Every structure is written in C-alpha cells, then in structure tokens.
Recover the amino acids of this structure.
C-alpha cells in the first residue's frame, strides 16, 4: 500500500542553522504531497503542499520540492528559529477515490537559542 | 477561521469503561475524521464520515465505533476501554472533494489515558 517514510528525530539545531527533514514515499499512482506541523499542545496545521512533479511548496520560509524521480519531498529551511520547534509530518494523498491522508511517523525539531 | 474543537484536552479512564470523545466543527464540512497519534507510528485513521449518519472504517477501527447524528458533530466511542487505547486522539474535518484536495483542519487533540 501507499506509505511515507521520514527521518527519525529528534533533530536538534541552533537558531539560524539550516534544516533538512527527509521524506520519501511509495505510491501506486501520482499522489499529492504535504507537510503538516504540530506545535506543542496543538493540533496539526498544513504547512505546505505540492500536487504534481517538480512543484515547489513554500510557506513561512519552509520549502519542499516534489521529486518524482526520487519519490521524495524533503522539507528545507535556510535559517530556523526557536519558534519552529515542533513535530513535522510528511503525508500523501492519492488523487483518486476517497481522499485519505497517509502520514509519516513525524520528526521532532528542537531549536535552541 | 475554521475551528475544530474537541470536548476534552486530557481524559483519564479505567479499563472497561465506555468512553466518548466529542468533536465539533463550525465550517459546515461534509467530511470528518478520527485519528490516533502514537510515538513512532504517526497518525493512523480510525474512522471517517462523509455525511450525516454515514461512516467508514479507516485503518484501525477495532475497539472503536463512531456516531454522526448532526453534520457538525462526530463522536468516537470506546465501548470498553483498554490500556492499549491510551493515546492522543485527533479529530479533523474537510469539505467534500470536488476534484483536487481539500485541506483537513485538525482539532487540538484529546490525550486519553486508560488505567
């Protein structure tokens, strides 16, 4: 079945460091891809998305590019802030049938001042 | 702003008790979902509903049931709580797809502990 694999955490960085969180997927067709973020004590929020190959999603300084050839959707940010500390989930949805989100296991990011 | 609210943030119950988790959304969304979130497992879909009184099993429905009597409210029921149901439960809602993806909006979660 469809699945998402993302890197284990926690990822610990100092403020202003560069961030990459790896995400790869397995799907029988052509999914849409998402990054969700969960801040402490809150539910998930959609951070960015990409619906077809070579699309780049971006929001709040985060970017991810849909790479069909490597089945990847890595999350990047050039300079992280303490306020970016959260759990990040990569997810996919197939564009046919009922739209069920398939999530990765989540990666916790800790940014220290 | 879309709002999805859940009845409790923290809940402690005993093994064998019947547990109700309530979710309410205020955006007239057709679709509603219940997930559980566990460390190392991410989010897993328990049940979803695409209309009043309609329900579909997700990936892990065993030990759970749901009720959707009104469009805005979706309840998750643990008929006889067990310790392996200790988890964070997240509710979400979205519009029915008319082609393309409709964003799911999540509630803050209920952390359930079964003793």
């Amino acid at each position: 079945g469809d699945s998402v694999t993302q890197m284990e955490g926690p990822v610990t960085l100092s403020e202003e460091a560069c961030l990459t969180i790896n995400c790869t997927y397995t799907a029988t067709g052509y999914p849409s891809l998402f990054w969700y973020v969960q801040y402490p004590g809150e539910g998930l929020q959609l951070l960015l998305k990409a619906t077809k190959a070579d699309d780049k999603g971006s929001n709040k300084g985060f970017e991810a590019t849909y790479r069909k050839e490597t089945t990847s959707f890595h999350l990047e940010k050039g300079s992280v802030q303490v306020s970016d500390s959260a759990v990040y989930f990569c997810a996919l949805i197939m564009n046919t049938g009922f739209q069920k989100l398939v999530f990765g296991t989540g990666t916790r990011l800790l940014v220290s001042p | 702003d879309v709002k999805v609210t859940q009845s409790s943030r923290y809940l402690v119950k005993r093994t064998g008790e019947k547990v109700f988790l309530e979710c309410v959304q205020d955006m007239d969304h057709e679709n509603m979902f219940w997930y559980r979130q566990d460390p190392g497992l991410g989010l897993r879909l328990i049940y979803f509903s695409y209309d009043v009184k309609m329900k579909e099993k997700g990936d892990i429905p065993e030990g759970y049931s749901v009720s959707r009597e009104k469009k805005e409210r979706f309840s998750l029921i643990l008929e006889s709580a067990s310790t392996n149901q200790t988890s964070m439960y997240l509710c979400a809602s979205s519009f029915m797809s008319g082609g393309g993806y409709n964003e799911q909006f999540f509630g803050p979660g209920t952390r359930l502990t079964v003793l």
In short: The CA atoms of residues 48 and 57 of chain A lie 5 Å apart. The two ends of chain A are 41 Å apart (CA to CA). Chain A is about 0% helix and 50% strand.
